[in-house]
TrEMBL record:
UniProt name for this protein: Cytidylate kinase
Keywords of this entry: ATP-binding, Cytoplasm, Kinase, Nucleotide-binding, Transferase
Key word Nucleotide-binding present: yes
TM helices/strands, residue ranges: none
NCBIfam families for the chain: cmk
Amino acid sequence: RKAYVVTVDGPSGAGKGTLSNMLADAYKWHFLDSGAIYRVLAIAAIHHKIALDDIHGLQPLANGLDVTFSVTDKGNRVILEGEDVSDDIRSEEVGSTASQIASIPMIREALLKRQRAFAQLPGLVADGRDMGTVVFPEAVAKIFLTASAQSRAQRRYEQLKAMGQDVKIACLLMDIQARDERDLNRATAPLVAAKYALEIDSTALGIAQVFEIAKAFIDSKI
Ligand code: C5P
């Protein structure tokens, strides 16, 4: 039997990571944080001093990216070339760099196989922008999670504050809008709900409610 794949796509800050982790936990399935791969690539480019428009420098980096994901008692850890970058990849600067790199078609192509390798038995919850449209078009259940830009900025603010980072909500809102603009309008794999995806608007919902809706939908598909 093939591994089940459930996809969770949507704009940044809608709560995809939290929802995906809860679903992976509930079903005891694997979890793919595809954004983390783009973020790790961004850090690798910065480390290796490769310019963001240097496609011929970025492509081999994407192909040979030495990254491992592991679940530990300290949560999900991301290791790049032997170094724990789990916290570094979460900064706004890295997110913005990742989103610029992610607009390059050759880079997206180079990362496809690596992402598909996460589809392992018994199942996978894949979190990203194009999981249901491009990476796992055959997924058994697809979810598109949205929320207003204002509420996403507010949540990001609380997350960053909890991590001790000092930021302004207005800056976060501008950053989210810039990232939405890039993710929605890029030529390759733009952010769009997959056909037959269940759309959930989490603006006025708590995470427990979002989880219940998503789980009931998945249960009806598997
Ligand atoms: O989801 P996260 O904010 O970690 O992703 C960082 C950036 O990587 C996003 O702004 C988006 O541009 C890009 N990304 C993507 N496709 C994915 C996941 C992330 O283009 N599947």
